[in-house]
Amino acid sequence: MLKPRYVETTVSAVDTSTIKIGETATGMLVAVRGATVWKQNRNYRYTRLGPFVFHITEDNKEEVYSALEKAYFSSSLTLARHSFPSLMQVPMRIASLLERWMQLMLAKTVKDGLVLFDGSLTAGTPDTPVHLMKDILSMARSHGNVVLAFSKMTTLRVNGCLITELPFNFKPPHLIQMDGVKSKPPMVLLGDVYVARLANGNYGFRLDIDKEATFEQRLWAVEKLLANDLLSQGYPETLRLAHILCTFTANEVIAIQHFTTRRFGLKIVSRPDMHSVLFGPFGRGEYCS
Q1: Residue 146 CB partners (closer than 8 Å, separation 6+)
Q2: Residue 97 neighbours by CB distance under 10 Å
Q3: What is the total count of domains within the chain?
């Protein structure tokens, strides 16, 4: 059972998003944006970066990604790649680069606070190399911060049941540690995994907390979160706001389309929806591919 720890603590969060603006004859237009939100002295503040618009083609995709990667993390952190991702995967990879850089900056600038990530502390993917995530966590620790990573969805199961749906008979707010969680190489878990139910209701979230934090630091971090942030439905408001502020609206997409076509002379191509052409009303489905 957790109790709010009423110690003035900065709570900060970061999130990024990407969206396809349209297709061109040679590739596609995409936009990427990130947002950081922090609560301090009972006030929420935020910074938004972007939107950054890219025209990605088969010819320039590796050059664009490599240039951004080098600019964010220097050549010493350049990712080893045996094969470059497909054109459709590049926007998410660019958004992940921006997110890791913003996480690193937040870890550097916040002092003795809580840094919230969207997702888990699992590393070893092309988007999240182990050495990069270790550097972010180390930077956060060196400034007295504790990293808490909230996952809205998880695939972890116990006896066939999702860990966030297990019937724990404890009154919120509470944490349940998931012992024995292991990752398959090359994936590495850099945090211990918990199920967090931090408010009344049936909503539980996977919560990863830095492995290097002591038990007391983990407990105090969550209790400080309870006292210093709103937790509607058990999800931190700082993280919710970061997601909202980086998400693109329909009006923003139209504005970006108008700007890029007029400013750079690019022509957005309207391609036919082949599923609708071939299958008519049966061309759409939940798992349509």
Answers
A1: 114, 115, 140, 209, 210, 213, 217, 218, 221
A2: 21
A3: 1
Residue at token pair 């808490």: 148
pLDDT of residue 176: 92
Under 8 Å between Cβ of 33 and 246: yes
Is 177 among the domain residues?
yes
Residue type, 75: S
CATH number assigned to the domain comprising residue 91: 3.30.2170
Res 284: pLDDT: 63
The mean pLDDT value for 201-212 works out to 91
Does the residue 262 lie in any domain? Answer: yes
- Residues 69-85: what's their mean pLDDT? 63
pTM, rounded to two decimals: 0.90
pLDDT, tens digit, for every residue of 96-148?
A: 999 999 999 999 999 999 999 999 999 998 888 899 999 999 999 999 999 99
Determine, yes or no, domain membership for 253: yes
State the Cα–Cα distance between residues 151 and 206, nearest whole angstrom. Answer: 5
Sign of CA dihedral 282, 283, 288, 289: positive
CA distance 46 to 102: 13
The half-sphere exposure of 152 on its side-chain side, counting CA atoms within 13 A, is 8
CA distance 245 to 248: 8
User: Higher confidence at residue 203 or residue 285?
Assistant: 203
Structural domain contains residue 156: yes
